Amino acid sequence: MIGKKKKKKGQLIVLSGPSGVGKSTVIAELMGERRGDIYFSVSFTTRAPRVGEADGVNYNFVTREEFEEMIVRDELLEHAEYVGNYYGTSLKVIQDKLNAGIDVLLDIEVQGAAKVRAKCPEAVLIFIIPPSFEELSRRLHGRATDQEDVIAGRLEKAREEYQHIPSYDYLVVNDKVSEAAAEILSILKAEDCRTRNRLHLIDDI
Amino acid sequence: MIGKKKKKKGQLIVLSGPSGVGKSTVIAELMGERRGDIYFSVSFTTRAPRVGEADGVNYNFVTREEFEEMIVRDELLEHAEYVGNYYGTSLKVIQDKLNAGIDVLLDIEVQGAAKVRAKCPEAVLIFIIPPSFEELSRRLHGRATDQEDVIAGRLEKAREEYQHIPSYDYLVVNDKVSEAAAEILSILKAEDCRTRNRLHLIDDI
């Protein structure tokens, strides 16, 4: 049996879901409930900021040249191209947080999630879906930040992403944001109770 | 993708833990919180009822002869001998509940749990431990229903049971009953979110 003093590592949590499903809103609710004791990993991207998005908050916005340099220097846990833009996650920041016992939340798409799974088999992968595909279409149109052809591209992409759902550990439906966040909180609490994460609590007998 | 109409089966939940850890109290709290929408499987046993225990509530108390007939007729999901007495679980009752979409909770010891796991790989196995071994000893002495040699036997048995903890999915510490019950509720909610239990929620796209 493992002794009591072993420090608990943080959990690596991956959230994916189609564009328009409301991930950002669910994440905001989640972070509020956990009072900031989860570190939300801010991804790097080459896409243009949307209205209201801030550099270093929603994403670290970089140029294509800067992003490709990070790839060359092997500074990314994962990166992927999505609807013509790069998205990626800094490796060092995440390792430091996990080693300090802090849970880390990644908001990444299916290609990136598969890479994280390959590198960190103990990562918890959660996929968020809308109540229905029609509802997803309604939400994308309601957002009104994208052109019709971009929306059509996102819906087509969503269809592809759905094929990857069986690789995810958990599936959460974002019908009401508070309920989706509550389900994710339960998942994180349950994962914390996993035997492999708690062997340090057992007496040496 | 699987269509929407597939009926969800109930979850089979196995709770184990050393004698004296407070399983019954945690289970009572749990059943209260879930307002009776979990079916608690009442085991059959040949051990004598303790003060306050009622037939059909805590256990179905039967004779050694009656129990051995059930074994011969293959009517048990699992059965085991524990501190000189038989304990077992009726197969048919549980199957009916699970097929009706009702979660079923089993309070069984490590041998029985291993048999359930072998027959139902999708069962959720939870082991409950006390905050420390000294605390377990205190609780057993505080219960004052058993003789000293019986208590010594239960502590020795607990040491053996601890060796089986790595076969369990989850480990819950019963320090405060309400917190242990809350953790188990989170585990059940999370298990309900498992992708394999939710494929029926995905649109046919």
From TrEMBL, chains A, B:
Pfam family, one: Guanylate_kin
Source taxon at top rank: Bacteria
SMART domains named in the record: GuKc
Coiled coil segments of this chain: none
Top EC category: transferase
Stored Gene3D superfamilies: Guanylate Kinase phosphate binding domain, P-loop containing nucleotide triphosphate hydrolases
Compartments, as annotated in UniProt: Cytoplasm
EC numbers: 2.7.4.8
Signal peptide from the UniProt entry: none
Reaction catalysis annotation: GMP + ATP = GDP + ADP
Key words of the record: ATP-binding, Cytoplasm, Kinase, Nucleotide-binding, Transferase
GO molecular function: ATP binding; GMP kinase activity
InterPro entries: GK/Ca_channel_bsu, Guanylate_kin-like_dom, Guanylate_kinase, Guanylate_kinase_CS, P-loop_NTPase
Transmembrane segments: none
Record GO cellular component, one term: cytosol
Primary residence: cytoplasm
Domain (Guanylate kinase-like): residue spans on this chain: 10-189
Residues the entry annotates as binding ATP: 17-24
HAMAP family named among the record's database cross-references: Guanylate_kinase
Its biological purpose: Essential for recycling GMP and indirectly, cGMP.
PANTHER family: GUANYLATE KINASE (PTHR23117:SF13), GUANYLATE KINASE-RELATED (PTHR23117)
Name of this chain's protein: Guanylate kinase
UniProt source species: Candidatus Flavonifractor merdipullorum
UniProt lineage: Bacteria, Bacillati, Bacillota, Clostridia, Eubacteriales
Name of the gene this protein is made from: gmk
